[in-house]
Amino acid sequence: MALRPSSLADLLARFRDGKVPALARAISWVENEREGFQDLLDSVLHVGPRTRRIGFTGPPGAGKSSLLAGMAAAYRKRGEILGIVGVAGNGQKPLVETLCGLSRPEQGTVRILGQSWKDFFAHDVWAGALSYIPEDRQGLATCGNLDLVDNFLLTTRNGFTRGPWLQKDRAERKIAALALDFGIQPPDVKALARQLSGGNLQKMVLAREFFRRPRLIIAEQPTQGLDIAAIEDVWQLLLKAREKAGVLLVTGDLAEALALSDRIAVMFDGRIMDIFAPSDGPRLAQIGLLMAGIQPAAATEPGAVPPP
């Protein structure tokens, strides 16, 4: 079971002060980042009832030029947050870009929510599928010179059209209600996105994407650059969202991964080194080695991902 952010400030202070030894050691592996990607694992993670699988399967012996060859991953039934952690530059960005349709897979087969990658992104489905919360909230998630109504319509426009007509008044009423529900300040839908603080802008993005009723949410560095209060607000919103969707949390903040995730996958050099629950103390103690690409003997226990 994931930890709850009931005392966020204390939790972050403990990590920064090195009072959680396993994570303090993990941070020291930052210099071990390597170039290039190895073939990703050709195995499927635990799949349970109502699983929404997102898989990558590549041909045997696929070359390193294919960043996503050989991996199969599953996001379990709704109610789970799967955290992806690792030193920046070890495959997280290509993974997210492929899952969100920003990059075409180079080879192999990718399936998202039961459909092939090509079929999934061939249709403009605005609701009930996948929502993406980008790392770049100012450049990719929003347009700074547009007001909140137009930013809300960036990904929800199809839900407010009737024939050739855009029902902007209805969209304005909806984002006004969401602004109150999500605590967006100021709650003025005519305010420009660039006039909002980072935390309030992120809450607007979350309100918009959760309104789409996704079955899968991909949250990439969702609290990067936010203050303590805004971080706690975003954490609470993600925990609430997982009641109705599976959440893939890609984060460079180990404290965040431990606080929110039901399972943690450690990524290095383009492959998943191990997957475990945050409550698994022995496996958590090895996270520094895993982030450096070293497969400790303990990771060969039943249920662990075997070394490639």
Q: Order of strands side by side in the largest beta sheet?
A: 6-9-10-3-11-12
- Total number of β-strand segments? 12
| Spans of at least 5 consecutive residues with low confidence | 1-9, 11-53, 56-76, 298-304
CATH topology of the largest domain, by name, is: Rossmann fold
Mean pLDDT: 78
What portion of residues is helical?
Answer: 25-40%
- Please give the CATH architecture of the largest domain: 3-Layer(aba) Sandwich
Under CATH, the homologous superfamily of the largest domain reads P-loop containing nucleotide triphosphate hydrolases
Tell me what you see in this structure.
The structure is a single chain. By secondary structure, the protein is of the alpha/beta class. It has two domains: 8-129 and 213-300, Rossmann fold, CATH 3.40.50; 144-197 and 207-211, no CATH class. Helices cover 31% and strands 17% of the residues. It contains eleven helices and twelve strands. Strand 11 and strand 12 (271-276) form a beta hairpin. Helix 5 crosses helix 6, helix 5 (148-156) packs parallel to helix 7 and helix 7 packs parallel to helix 8 (228-241). The radius of gyration is 20 Å and the shape is globular.
Spell out the blueprint of helices and strands.
Elements: H1 8-16, H2 21-27, E1 52-57, E2 72-75, E3 81-85, H3 92-99, E4 109-112, E5 115-116, H4 117-122, E6 130-133, H5 148-156, E7 161-162, E8 165-166, H6 168-181, H7 198-211, E9 216-220, H8 228-241, E10 246-250, H9 254-260, E11 263-268, E12 271-276, H10 281-284, H11 287-291
Parallel strand pairs: 3-10, 3-11, 6-9, 9-10
Antiparallel strand pairs: 1-2, 1-4, 4-5, 7-8, 11-12
